[in-house]
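Example S7 (structure tokens).
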């Protein structure tokens, strides 16, 4: 970097949106001609945005764990056509894993609780369960 490059503090202010007016315009002109400062700004941007990426990956991993039985059912279904000799076995595996996925899902458990409340005649409890479920979504 040469001696006219802005400090890292100015680059971080630019990244956070705290830099405005003439200073921002001057920095953007400098960034247009300085590859080192663009690289430094890109690295800083990646560090700032990394927690968002990690949260997204964590949510995706949680979703994958919740849908593992569904993925197994889908694979068994596909394998039943790839290996026709074992069609029935893969189809049974698909049904078992699909049923397990349905019974393990949170929605199914809540629907079962609502149905049990309605069956016992406790409509207030059923309505409370429905309202709690719809508020959480």
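Recovered sequence:
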């Amino acid at each position: 970097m040469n001696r006219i490059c802005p400090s890292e503090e100015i680059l971080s202010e630019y990244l956070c949106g705290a830099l405005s007016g003439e200073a921002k315009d001057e920095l953007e002109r400098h960034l247009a001609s300085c590859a080192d400062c663009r690289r430094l700004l890109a690295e800083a941007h990646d560090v700032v945005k990394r927690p968002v990426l990690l949260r997204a990956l964590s949510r995706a991993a949680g979703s994958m764990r919740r849908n593992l039985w569904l993925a197994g059912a889908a694979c068994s279904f596909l394998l039943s056509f790839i290996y026709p000799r074992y069609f029935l076995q893969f189809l049974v595996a698909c049904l078992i894993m699909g049923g397990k996925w349905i019974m393990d899902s949170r929605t199914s458990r809540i629907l079962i609780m609502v149905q049990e409340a309605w069956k016992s005649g406790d409509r207030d409890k059923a309505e409370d369960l429905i309202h709690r479920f719809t508020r959480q979504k």
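Notes on this example. The radius of gyration is 28 Å.
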